[in-house]
Amino acid sequence: MNDLFSGLDVAELHLANRIVVPPMATEQADAEGNPGPATAARYGSLAATGAALVVVEHSAVSPEGRSSLQQISLATDAHIAGHAAIAAAIHAAGALCAAQISHAGSNRGEGMPARCLAPSAVENPVSHLMPEEMSTGDIASVIRAFGAAAGRVREAGYDFVEVHCAHGYLLGEFLSPLTNHRTDVYGGTPAARRRLLLEVIEEVKGVIHGDLPLMVRLGVADNPPTFQLYPGGLTLDEGVEAARALDQAGVAIIDVSAAMCGSRPPGVSGEAYFRPFAEAVSAAVHTHVICTGGITRPQTAEDIIESGTADLVGVGRALAADHAWVHKAREALRH
Ligand SMILES: Cc1cc2nc3c(=O)[nH]c(=O)nc-3n(C[C@H](O)[C@H](O)[C@H](O)COP(=O)(O)O)c2cc1C
User: Fold this and answer.
1) Contact 224, 275 (CB under 8 A)
2) Which atom of ligand 1 is nearest to the CA of 58?
């Protein structure tokens, strides 16, 4: 039986244990969206905790895709150097690393300079901004931007590339019936709402040619497991269908989270609050699955792995607050 400290092979890579640091935005970019030395140092210290894999926070794939003015970027080749420093800091501390690439769509701060884009001209339920409906030309640009950003992830020296399709950002806005009212090939049915995500995955695969395994942060439902914050939103059944499609597309790791309600939904607490989501995805796919959200106790993490709920656990805030978390887990679980 696998436990929290069992190794895991993913494609050609070996993860030393099952603990992942999930992406946690530092919001420390300079005016051009470059991460600086403080950000690289922070990731080095997270990697030194003993977690096997550190997923670096969301980077914008284009100027329109930024969620805030402080967000780091991978929209141009000039951004590669700052990311290379982060990847090097993580590797020097002995962990593997992923970069998360994202387009915020209409879930972004107010007063951003670039166009506010979304599948439909519908008020964003989280940011309350009214976006422009994307043209097919806008959609083609976004697909190309994800591919180009993935190429920069490889250039920077990361081990994995993670496409962000959660937390109400653009790719998730396409999945959700709340924000996607399109009547063309990108809307109307669940399969049509998944289309952009799958086209982005194909583009990314075409650019990285199998050099890096692909991860997707997938918001599998607009609502938390136990109550409705966004009635009429993306259902878990549809989210699981999207996970199946990603599995068939060759995605190596599905990093399970929620969609419109975000990664830390108001009114949701307790250990491993998205465990039912991870369970549903694991039951439906062959690929590896990460369970994240409210995991604070080593025993919870161990149980998630031993029970087969997921192959990996994301421990974010607990590990950021206590860099000895992995060490203490090893002691507590007597590995
Ligand atoms: C400060 C902060 C920033 C975050 N930034 C991101 C991000 O850039 N991308 C992402 O997918 N999730 C982000 N998240 C969500 C985390 O990856 C994670 O899903 C969430 O914190 C729940 O896990 P935890 O209870 O172990 O912290 C962020 C969370 C926090 C607390």
Assistant:
1) no
2) 8
Whether 13 is covered by a domain: the verdict is yes
Q: How does 287-296 read in b/e, with b if 16+ C-beta sit within 10 Å?
A: bbbbbbbbbb
Its domain, for residue 321, covers: 8-332
How many distinct structural domains can be found in the chain?
1
Residue 242 included in any domain = yes
- CA angle 327-332-335, nearest 5°? 75
* From 19, 20, 21, 24, mutation site for ligand 1 pocket: most ligand atoms within 8 A of C-beta: 24
Residue 317 alpha carbon, nearest atom of ligand 1: 27
Burial classification of residue 99, based on how many CB atoms lie within 10 Å of its CB (0-12 exposed, 13-18 middle, 19 or more buried): buried
DSSP conformation letters of 270-322: STTTTHHHHHHHHHH-SSEEEEESS---HHHHHHHHHTTS-SEEE--HHHHH-
- pLDDT, tens digit (0-9, with 9 covering 90-100), for 291-330: 999 999 999 999 999 999 999 999 999 999 999 999 999 9
Domain containing residue 148: CATH number = 3.20.20.70
Count of Cβ atoms closer than 10 Å to residue 11 Cβ: 16
Which residues lie with the beta carbon below 6 Å from any ligand 1 atom?
Answer: 22-25, 57-58, 100, 164, 166-167, 217, 257, 263-264, 292-295, 314-318
Q: Beta-carbon neighbour count of residue 31 at 10 Å?
A: 7
Report yes or no on 208 lying in a domain.
yes
Task: With respect to residue 18, please indicate whether it lies within any of the assigned structural domains.
Answer: yes
Residue 1: which pLDDT band, with cuts at 50, 70 and 90?
confident
Length of the chain: 335
Task: Give pLDDT tens digits for 241-276.
Answer: 999 999 999 999 999 999 999 999 999 999 999 999
Instruction: Say which residues have a Cβ less than 8 Å from residue 331's Cβ, sequence separation at least 6.
Output: none
For residue 167, the ligand 1 atom closest to its alpha carbon is: 11
Q: What is the pTM of this model?
A: 0.98
Residue 316 CB-half CA count within 13 A: 18
Kind plus residue range of the DSSP H or E element containing 236: helix 236-248
Is 230 assigned a catalytic role?
A: no
